[in-house]
């Protein structure tokens, strides 16, 4: 996948006699392609402590608990003073996805959220900026007079982890800082269900405003579901939001079950297609599923072995490209599944971020489609308003490979793009 980032021209598009363009054209490369998203900006802070520290700060060992700003500030200063901090790393599911997209696409993304107005070299806010790709545009962040979110992971000698979570000002994003033009000109808006949890918070209203603007300008909205507990807590409002605004829903098998009451990932995906146009579902060691709609008359049969599960012959049309259900005269549900790449890494220390990586790959393919449509609107690739540039099966391959890379490096944020040989535009890839 070589575009929309500025790469070598020969890698941009497959060219044939029916689909040519002037490679020296002055308009080449002028398409303004980016994605945007809203996140609860936070930093993961890891430190090794003894039990006395937990007692001094009133923390229950092995549990996750909320910390107020004062308690979090005192804990942070104590850890710094005694040089107990091992790592401070940017977190947040949307922040991770935007970062990974920009690494994969080598192109711009725009992040909405808050950031501490006063930043000192080496502190948590500074580390957040350091751990974020320079391609992620942070100029639209709202400055706040206080801390962003902090998640402390305190590890004692016996290996037990105790978590202290302080939201700081991460939920204070004002709707005034949601720029209409940025959303209107984007190729996708990424949101997380966490921001739907409390309607009294400013970030809730910012999220709703952004979703309304995206709907107004027909920008795809992508929503990640958060956790099983969150889905259970806001199930009905979440379903309404999915039905009203969301194009693509991304989740793991636990979140899908909480929302649909279906244990089988395939059946859960099918159930969710009543609310959204596409579903990305990661199922751990089982791999990942991608589901959506296509035009019945334009469906393409797979060349892979036909598979059956809770849905008979479910992957029969996985070589099809997805469409919005509203753009289909005769909608046909399509599904694809892929097992973990090479069986998964031999040693997995942390599964955090694998789903965010898969989602970044899907969004990259969507942005590539948007870019190509701007550059070559008369191409046969755009005879319909396809959601992605590639088929469902090929997007699965790409998402699977990126997930593997995240797991292999034990970090939710990619430190590099995929190897060059895996990113080239091979005809066999793009023909699907």
Automatic annotation (TrEMBL):
Q: One of this protein's Pfam families, by short name?
A: PfkB
- SUPFAM superfamilies, per the entry: Ribokinase-like
Q: Which domain of life is it from?
A: Bacteria
Keyword annotations for this protein?
Kinase, Transferase
Task: Give the Gene Ontology MF terms in alphabetical order.
Answer: kinase activity
| Keyword Membrane in annotation | no
Question: Entry's InterPro entries?
Answer: Carb_kinase_PfkB-like, PfkB_dom, Ribokinase-like
Looking at the record, the residues that make up the Carbohydrate kinase PfkB domain are 133-292
User: Does the record carry Kinase as a key word?
Assistant: yes
Q: Which family does it belong to?
A: Belongs to the carbohydrate kinase PfkB family.
What is the protein's given name?
Answer: Guanosine kinase
Q: Please give the organism.
A: Endozoicomonas elysicola
